[in-house]
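dumping this here before i forget
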Amino acid sequence: MTAAGVRALVPGLLLVVAASLLAYGVAGVVPAVTASTVAVVLGALVRSTGLHRPVFAPATKLVSKRVLRIAVVLLGLSLPLSQVRDLGTAGIVLVLGVVVITFFGTQLLGRLLGLSPDRSLLVATGFSICGASAIAAVRPATDADEEDTTTAIALVTLCGSLAILLLPLLRTPLGLDVHSFGAWAGASVHDVGQAVATGDRVPGALTTVVVVKLSRVLLLAPLVALVALRRRRAAGAAGTALPPVLPLFVAGFVAAVLLRSTGVLPDGLLDVAKHLQEVLLVGALFGLGTGIDIPRLLQTGRRSIALGLLSWLLVAAVALLGVKALGI
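structure:
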């Protein structure tokens, strides 16, 4: 990148840093929301109020794509394969069932609502796996445009934030003990940060939430490969260029998972990587948020909003039924 290109990034990067600091500040004052949620909202407010000037665009585009991909790779360092063993058979069945039913069920709902296959696919991926990170990972294997992506991000942020507030209130009426609630939250809340925030509101549930949630995240690479293979078959039949089975940054995510699973990385380094991943994700989500025009979404995205709410109800219901049926 040239010196002029670097200078062009400075105003936008300063905006991203300021917004990220504000997001962490708000999250510190209001524990019911996460910094990543606040970052998306701030980005959408900046866009919707006309404050996102052209001078900021180079940096916000950079962080919403490249920085988000770096955050996805670093997420892999939080995922030792050994935790799948810790789940047990019932936990593995729960995670697989929730992901499969939510992924395909959301796409079916999208078709019934008349939404495009690509938008439905992005929403399905975000709700079934891990929110914005999953949406970013699967997008290269689709024809989804920027509006599809930002809409899916907005929906998963909205519904995940509602889950933080509502799920703990439903624990007692649903007759869930602490462990069962942790399994339900881990299997149904979308973003990792949102799942942690939900579990943190019920003392003793956080460990179960994290194990179940991160086990869902491990399915990110197989799901991306599945989508890419389906796209390759369609592209081959049409004679168009074939997409990679795994985008480079998703391959990096897999490599990070394998590296973490070796146990060679010291805890101090893993802690640094975890915090760096969270910081980069917050900045990237602010950048993505600047692509969300709230008035336009409310006027033209009613079917998309309906899909998000239905997918949220689907994943919560399937996870709850699974916890009850499997006796977790």
